[in-house]
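REQUEST FORM: STRUCTURE PREDICTION
Request ID: SP-0412
Submitted by: Lab K.M.
Chain count: 1
Length (residues): 134
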Amino acid sequence: MKASYLHSVRRLLDCPAAERERLLRQLDRAVSAWIEDNPCADKAELAKTFGTPEVCAARLMEECDSTVVTDERRRRKLRTRVLIAVLTILLLAAVGIAAYLWSNGGLVIIEHVRHGENFPEDLPMDQTIYHYDD
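STATUS: Completed
RESULT:
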C-alpha cells in the first residue's frame, strides 16, 4: 500500500531528482509514522489522510523553488524534442533506404567468385555475379 502510493506520487513530482528524493523521504517518514499509528488502515484511508497522489504531489511541489522547477521542465522538454528529432531522422533514413531498395528492384548482392568455390566450371574465370534479393 505505502510503496504503490509513494510510487504514484513520485511519478507526479515534476522537479529535479535531488529535490524529488528529498520530498519523497519526507513523505515516506510521514506515511510510515501514520501507518504505525493506524496499522489496520487501507489505501482509501491513506488517500483520505494524505490526499490522492495528485493532490499530495501538488502540495509537495509547492515546497519547491519555482525557478528550479521551471528550469527542470525546460530541460525535460528539450530532451524530449531532441529525442523526437533523432527518432524522426532515423525513421526517415530507414524509409529512404527502403524506398531506394524498392525502386531498384531490391537489394543487389555482388559476389566475386573463382572456380573451385562451389561454382559451376563452365563460367569464365573470375566471374562477377549479381544476385537480386527481393
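NOTES: The longest strand covers residues 107-113.
Reviewed by: T.R.
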